[in-house]
Design brief:
single chain; 237 residues; alpha/beta; two-stranded antiparallel sheet; 10 strands; 27% helix; globular
Amino acid sequence: MQKRIAVVPARGGSKRIYKKNIKFFLGNPIISYTLNTLTESKLFDKIHISTDDLEIKRVVEDLNFKIDFLRDPALADDTTPIMPVIRFVLKEYKKLGLEYEQVWIVMPCSPLLESKDLIAANELFERNDRAFPVLAVSEYPAPIEWAFDLSKDSRLTALNEGMFAKDSKQLIPKYFDAGSFFIWATHDLNKTNGAGTDRDLVGYVIPKSKCVDIDDEEDWRLAEALYASRPTKSKIS
């Protein structure tokens, strides 16, 4: 049994940003940054790009990453959660005689992620004896106790009435899924059903400067600006 597989879910058919997973980000396909970071970390026995899309397959293989099999089209719609996709990947590799102790789910549009983040997250996973999945998280930029609902006519309703008067220093920081990566022991992942679970997780904290979940063009421009402002940048082969 081999140690680690990184699965990069990169289906076709993105709606809000056309061909998001292979769109050029500062001169290179955005997925190339994630693949470069995974390679630099030297953690993985296998890097698998899970896609149903032949154009994505061509771009990835032009980057010298061989795709051993395509994703089942039934697992490539807008509503399929990620866990059935990962289980499919593990089953297909088992048919090929390959099994892995750990599964890392690493998102294709994570250009701000660095190999040192993966290495540190792996150390956290090992310190906890691989007993709990590790999820990359980031701190909310403002206390969630200050949140409002906004109606169609622009009226605001405080979700926690009166909490606006609390100084942020009096409130405990809260965290959200950074949309970067998730680490599982394979035997634990295989015990999950459906979309998986959000219980008994360990959080690896990603700095706000590396946490842009790229869903629209504004997110894209922000991520490019943050990447371009770095003093040192990873080389894209």
